[in-house]
Amino acid sequence: MEAVLKQPQPTPEVTPKDHKKLSALALFKRGILVFLGAVLVAVGLEIFLVPNQVIDGGVVGISIMLSHLSGLNLGIFLFVLNIPFFFLGYKQIGKTFTISSIFGVIVMSIGTTLLHPVRPLTEDPLLAAVFGGMILGIGVGLVIRHGGSLDGTEILAIVFNKRIPLSVGQTVMFINLFILGSAGFVFTWDRAMYSLMAYFIAFKAIDVTIEGFNETKSIWIISDNPEILGEAILNRLGRGVTYLSGQGAFSGEDKKVIFCIITRLEEAKLKSIVEDIDPQAFLAVGNIHDIQGGNFKKRSIH
């Protein structure tokens, strides 16, 4: 009896152009969170910042000043001034980003219009800057985290980055400093200072919303006792480790490099473990803002 040998079927090649569409549930979740973020931004603007003549950076700040000077509704400027950036976003980032951004800007514009007659919660500009900046930052962070944007400044910075010797972050900073400084001429200079405070608070709130409170750390250790050290980290800290092959450029010696991921609360304990086992070990710690795939669950150590 002859055995029939089956030829293995070639695995279909995955190209960078292949794109998996989001499921209906994922799209619904994204839409809800972008909607919630845009509503929070509208609340931060109309209930705190705008009534107290405190502005934010970017298109939002320009819109607040134009609304104050012209007497027209803030929502009109928020939508109209963002239209050019929708086209730039489509070319630079993609269709899903553009659709999410358009949806978010529409919700934000309608939200500011509906909330405009509502009385502000405080007339103290300091409280308005703190709480308005915090709420606005959380809202913007939610939208960015789920694939959209409510302000075209960063898209503009990406375009300018190809033509000027500045990073995207530096370009955004210079644009926003110019806008926030303009508040001193439109309102008063103390309002410009409150605006700078609100912008900083919003900036930090965006970071926390996008990255979360539970910041993780990447650990790289070069030791003469890598197996003992790796076992100690596994048993005493409950974290898995990966051994990487390395070679010293100066000595030419082959080394095992220990790599692991921990939370910031575990950093002190890990350092004490390394100090106990190999005080001469080289230890490098870096911040990680996101982890995807793999298994980051902590093992029981008791």
UniProtKB/TrEMBL annotation:
The chain crosses the membrane at residues 27-50, 70-90, 97-114, 126-144, 164-186. Keywords: Cell membrane, Membrane, Transmembrane, Transmembrane helix. Its main location: membrane. It comes from the Bacteria. It is found in: Cell membrane. Residues 239-293 form the DUF2179 domain. It is a multi-pass membrane protein. GO terms for cellular component: plasma membrane. This is Uncharacterized membrane-anchored protein YitT (DUF2179 family). It comes from Croceifilum oryzae. The lineage of its organism: Bacteria, Bacillati, Bacillota, Bacilli, Bacillales.
